[in-house]
Specification:
Belongs to the TRAFAC class YlqF/YawG GTPase family. MTG1 subfamily. It comes from Cohnella zeiphila. By secondary structure, this protein is an alpha/beta fold. It contains ten helices and seven strands. The chain folds into two domains: 7-175, Rossmann fold (3-Layer(aba) Sandwich); 201-275, Conserved Hypothetical Protein Ylqf, Chain: A, domain 2, CATH 1.10.1580.10. Strands 1, 2, 3, 4, 5, 6 and 7 form a seven-stranded mixed sheet that branches. Bound molecules: guanosine-5'-diphosphate. Guanosine-5'-diphosphate binds at residues 58-59, 61-62, 86-88, 127, 129-135, 148-150.
């Protein structure tokens, strides 16, 4: 299923989320820890408004631990509570209910002061496709409560899911869109697999990624592919293509006539990146 993100669609997605905001106490903004900026929706502040929000850097298991710490600090510096999690294994997930209650402590205390029994916080999870919303819902619920898989735009009857007595989750997460018009963002989203490979030429995605990897993770590249002296600065796509060619040669990605098959080499690199075989990698650092 492909989704065209035209403006009307974005307006509808925004309205759907805003309708759901009326039902809930807190928003979990799920982002990809490898791309904490590019995997966010640029209008998120406007969409969520003053509703309490917990930012969850998911797939933290694939991201650089040092970068995770930097990004958490960056979000907190803007007054946003943030946690690094791995929704697949559940690492960090058990901290979520406690952090949520801390975020809502004023409201909870007001309810207690009025003699009311505080009810379980009601939660809406929002995030771009493939960021791990369904995986997190399942993990929090402790059973297969939501269907995992990339199904943007699919809606079903809305239900509340009890999560360990601590939270109540809306079963249909809010689907946000990334900032498509920025090509750099597009390359990064394609590199992590957040947008489909067909959208951008895979060799170009690989070359853009290589420029970042050479600068920040040159050692990991050399080690994985047995390459020596990768310059930390690949000044242009041609320089990156030369490294991709080397990777292709080392991995036997050959086209006819002894030429390197760049598409295959790009596939090798991106698969290794996405699966963590290149190590834990973050593709952008906070702008301070
Ligand atoms: P959704 O479209 O936002 O609902 O995303 P899904 O929950 O379907 O997850 C997309 C893919 O990311 C699936 O293959 C998940 O197994 C994977 N995934 C989700 N969370 C994590 C995580 O924390 N770490 C890793 N390594 N993979 C994850």
């Amino acid at each position: 299923m492909t989704i065209q993100w035209f403006p009307g669609h974005m307006t509808r997605a925004k309205r759907q989320i805003q309708d759901k905001l009326k039902l809930i106490d807190v928003v979990f903004e799920l982002i990809d820890a490898r791309l904490p900026q590019s995997s966010r929706n640029p209008m998120i502040d406007e969409i969520v408004g003053p509703k309490p929000r917990l930012v969850l850097l998911n797939k933290a298991d694939l991201a650089d631990p040092e970068a995770n710490a930097k990004w958490l600090g960056w979000f907190r510096s803007f007054g946003l509570e943030a946690l690094a999690i791995d929704a697949n294994s559940g690492s960090g997930v058990k901290e979520i209910p406690g952090r949520t209650k801390a975020l809502l402590s004023d409201k909870i205390e007001r309810q207690i002061a009025k003699g009311m029994k505080p009810r379980a916080p009601r939660v809406l999870i929002v995030g771009i496709p493939n960021v791990g919303k369904s995986t997190l819902i399942n993990k929090l619920a402790g059973r297969s409560a939501a269907i995992t898989g990339d199904r943007p735009g699919v809606t079903k009857g809305q239900q509340w899911i009890r999560a360990g007595g601590d939270l109540e989750l809306l079963d249909t997460p809010g689907i946000l869109w990334p900032k498509f018009e920025d090509l750099e963002v597009g390359f990064k989203l394609a590199a992590t697999g957040a947008i489909k490979e067909q959208v951008l030429p895979i060799e170009e995605v690989a070359c853009h990624t290589l420029r970042w990897l050479a600068a920040e993770y040159g050692g990991a590249l050399s080690e994985r592919y047995g390459l020596s002296d990768i310059p930390p600065s690949l000044p242009d796509v041609a320089a990156a293509a030369a490294v991709l060619e080397e990777i292709g040669r080392k991995r036997g990605c050959l086209a006819g006539g002894g030429h390197i098959d760049y598409e295959k080499a790009a596939g090798v690199l991106l698969r290794d990146l996405r699966s963590g075989k290149l190590g834990r990698i973050t593709l952008e650092s906070p702008i301070v």
